[in-house]
Design a protein that fits this description.
Na+/H+ antiporter like fold
Length: about 325
């Protein structure tokens, strides 16, 4: 029981969502209803994000140029190029949708909660971590899908007008509404922090469940040979190395002080399942989304496992 309680709650929920999708996938006419529920949950998720992110924190974060600009370039430039390289290298070796998943992984923004928590544990600049990671997620609403389409060059990576409309209506509009109603609702959100935190996690789990249900219905395991799973694991391991080593070295190159360099490491190397799962459910059909999400799901689990010992080590040096 103690071991179960030590597992990150998000990891537990993702495991439950994937298990349910395998055992009891939503299919047929029920899928439309499930997709509507998933979209509604994503809408509310980004509405709450808009309520929670204070405008003055956005302004304060913009003033830390030495951290913010290199971090943004690494997250949407260096990591996106690493994802593109893995996608290209995987042609003919990986299953096509898994290879595409690495490109999608590279275009995602950073995490907020875990990047901030581990930055604090490692002696990083916590205030800058919070603002930088939040701003990366805000930029991700505008940048991730078009960047993914641009680097993918069409086909299944194509970003069409209907996809743009979905992103605007389900991600951007609720976020802006949350910002507008921040003065009225921020107090309620703060008073019910535990409830809203579980809603955040639940909405992500719903998006993963619906996506994997479609993949299960299409028998996605028949699309991935044993060697393909090996390439998936190897690709994630390589991406973890590039993400962490690249962020740490870039922090030294631009001469960040140690606290900001630590913040750069965690915010630059981690990728957001909170953005990845909902956005995939908007951009892709469930059958495609379930397979495309495999790299980000595995990367998310691995980054949580790696972060604690790295943070502890940095705190001791």
């Amino acid at each position: 029981m103690n071991l179960f309680n030590r597992i990150d709650p998000m990891v537990r929920l993702l495991t439950i969502a994937i298990t349910l999708a395998v055992l009891v996938p939503v299919t047929g006419t029920a899928r439309g209803i499930a997709q509507f529920v998933a979209n509604a949950a994503v809408f509310l998720l980004f509405f709450l994000n808009g309520v929670r992110l204070p405008r003055h924190e956005v302004a304060a974060g913009l003033s830390n140029h030495r951290l913010l600009w290199p971090l943004t370039l690494w997250c949407f430039g260096g990591m996106a190029l690493a994802g593109w390289a893995l996608w290209q290298a995987g042609q003919g070796w990986m299953p096509p949708l898994i290879a595409l998943g690495f490109l999608y992984l590279g275009c995602l923004p950073s995490t907020v909660q875990s990047a901030t928590a581990y930055s604090s544990l490692a002696g990083g600049n916590v205030a800058s971590s919070v603002v930088a990671a939040a701003l990366l997620n805000l930029l991700g609403v505008f940048v991730t899908a078009p960047l993914f389409s641009l680097m993918g060059g069409g086909g299944e990576a194509g970003f069409h007008a209907d996809g743009l409309l979905k992103v605007v209506m389900i991600l951007l509009v609720p976020f802006m509404l949350g910002q507008l109603l921040q003065g009225r609702l921020s107090g309620w959100v703060k008073d019910n922090k535990q409830l809203t935190t579980w809603f955040d996690r639940g909405s992500i789990a719903i998006a993963v469940y619906v996506a994997f249900s479609g993949a299960v219905e299409q028998r996605f395991w028949t699309q991935v040979e044993p060697a393909g799973w090996g390439w998936l694991l190897g690709g994630v391991a390589l991406f973890l190395l590039v993400g962490h080593l690249g962020a740490w070295l870039l922090g030294a190159l631009v001469r960040l002080d140690r606290p900001n360099r630590v913040s750069m490491l965690f915010a630059g190397a981690q990728k957001s399942i909170a953005m990845g799962a909902p956005l995939a459910s908007v951009l892709f059909s469930p059958a495609v989304a379930g397979v495309v999400l495999l790299p980000i799901l595995l990367y998310h689990l691995a980054q949580l496992v790696m972060a604690a010992p790295i943070a502890t080590r940095l705190n001791q040096t």
